[in-house]
Design brief:
Blueprint lengths: L18 H13 L13 H24 L6 H14 L3 E2 L12 E4 L2 E3 L14 E10 L2 E10 L5 H19 L7 H14 L3 E2 L5 E3 L6 E5 L16 E4 L2 E3 L5 E3 L7 E3 L5 E3 L2 E5 L4 E5 L1
Antiparallel strand pairs: 1-4, 2-4, 3-12, 4-5, 6-10, 7-8, 9-14, 10-13, 11-12, 14-15
């Protein structure tokens, strides 16, 4: 860009006083052989404002589920809660119709790793753990997050898995800062999971998000420290490791083509945050 022209990010500053400094630093890391983001992976200020509003609605939807989820309800009732709340607040459930997905939310119980499909015949029972994964479109902007919910009194093994999964995400979050790498997040997550006797699903990861449901980069949670893409201010992506009680291996339901199960029938848990890399750390947009 012209040095004295207005920066492409919408800050109102001259390029030389704004993103030229960041892009020079990106170029330095690229010369060192590191993987770096392209400019279109960095969100502009107007885009970030729109994504924040979508994220606020996404969080409100999860809060709505948290206020109503209980033993004896069906996962289809959760789907109705999510769909109706989203639409009544001007949003669109992003999963509905995405590559043929038939519902407005994913509900994954116990040994289901992800992409569980709500059904009126699936009833929440005392002792269940369930991941509710909500994704929202508002004014064309996308947001994404999931929470683990525990139904009544759960077993000690289930409680530990859910607790450690949340700890893994928080430890990964601490590494989500500019000029670190996605591998730093992965190493923090994988190390803590393994230290507690758990495994991290390798083939399913996080993703960029904001202008589309799934964008670059793909986010691994088993990559070594110091590897994968450089983290740069303006990047938005999810931190959403899937932590298995036993083996990281899984299979996909042949009948519905979506629901992912643990190969060994062990429990699985997932927590998903959506984060924005800032100049001095990161901002959690929704969780």
């Amino acid at each position: 860009m012209e040095r004295n022209g207005l920066c492409w990010c919408g800050s109102g500053k001259k390029y030389k006083k704004c993103h030229r400094l960041i892009e020079d630093k990106i170029a330095y890391h690229e010369m060192k052989g590191e993987i770096v983001p392209t400019r279109d992976m960095l969100k502009t200020i107007p885009q970030i404002e729109g994504i924040r509003k979508s994220a606020e609605l996404n969080t409100a939807i999860l809060d709505h589920v948290e206020a109503h989820i209980h033993a004896g309800m069906s996962t289809e009732e959760i789907n109705t809660l999510v769909h109706d709340f989203t639409v009544s607040h001007g949003g669109i459930p992003a999963p509905l119709g995405y590559e043929g997905f038939p519902k407005s939310v994913c509900t994954s119980i116990n040994n289901e790793v992800c992409h569980g499909i709500p059904d009126e015949s699936i009833i929440l029972q005392e002792g269940d753990i369930i991941n509710v994964d909500v994704s929202t479109i508002l004014d064309g902007y996308f947001s994404d997050a999931s929470r683990m919910f525990t139904i009544g009194k759960i077993s000690e093994r289930a409680e530990k898995l859910v607790r450690v999964t949340k700890e893994c995400v928080e430890l990964g979050l601490a590494q989500a800062k500019p000029w670190n790498h996605l591998g730093d997040i992965a190493d923090a997550i994988n190390s803590h999971a393994q230290a507690n006797g758990y495994s991290v699903v390798e083939e399913i990861g996080g993703h960029g998000v904001g202008l589309e449901f799934h964008e670059e980069p793909w986010v691994s949670y088993v990559a070594p420290k110091g590897t994968e893409m450089l983290l740069v201010p303006g990047m938005i992506f999810t931190i959403e490791p899937m932590i298995n009680e036993g083996s990281p291996d899984f299979f996909v339901d042949e009948d519905n083509g979506w629901t992912v199960y643990t190969e060994d029938d062990g429990l699985s848990a997932q927590v998903e945050y959506m984060v924005l890399i800032t100049e001095d750390g990161c901002e959690v947009l929704t969780k």
